[in-house]
Amino acid sequence: MAKKPQVKVDTAPELEPAPQGQANPVDLRASGRRARNAAGNARRQASAWLDGVAPGHGNAVLFGIAGGVVALVILYVGFFQALLIAILVLAGVAFGQWLDGDPVIINALSRLLRSGDNS
């Protein structure tokens, strides 16, 4: 019989198994901090690039791009499907805010609906 090849899998250094009887020392806060720092650096670089391309008009360019993306989504999936996607995304964000203890969207909707009740 022919011998089957063996596959060797290397693991990342921070995920090496801990010695027998010890917990694996993976610090999730450190990896989260690294991700937040990387995202902050990317945002600063994008902001600096946008200020160089359109000085003083960064928001106009950003929201122009966002409007173009929305227009493409509406053209691709249709108006009512895009509206449903927007409503479901808004509901998801509202639910997430509620779980986080900061229900900004729910409070705004509550104020909006309550203001019509003043008869």
**Rg on CA atoms, Å:** 25 Å
Structural class: mainly alpha
As a percent range, the share of strand residues is under 5%
Topology order in helix (H) and strand (E) letters: HHHH
Number of strands: 0
Plain-language structure description:
- The model has no long low-confidence stretch (mean pLDDT 81).
- Among the domains are: 30-67; 78-119, no CATH class.
- The chain contains four helices and no strands.
- 67% of the residues lie in helices and 0% in strands.
- It is extended, with a radius of gyration of 25 Å.
- Helix 2 (58-77) crosses helix 3 (79-100).
- It has 119 residues and is mainly α.
- This is DUF2273 domain-containing protein.
- Keywords: Membrane, Transmembrane, Transmembrane helix.
Quick synopsis:
With 119 residues, the chain is mainly alpha-helical. Helix content is 67%, strand content 0%.
Topology:
Elements: H1 28-53, H2 58-77, H3 79-100, H4 104-115
Helix pairs in contact: 2-3
Give the key terms.
membrane, 4 helices, 119 residues, DUF2273, DUF2273 domain-containing protein, transmembrane, mainly alpha
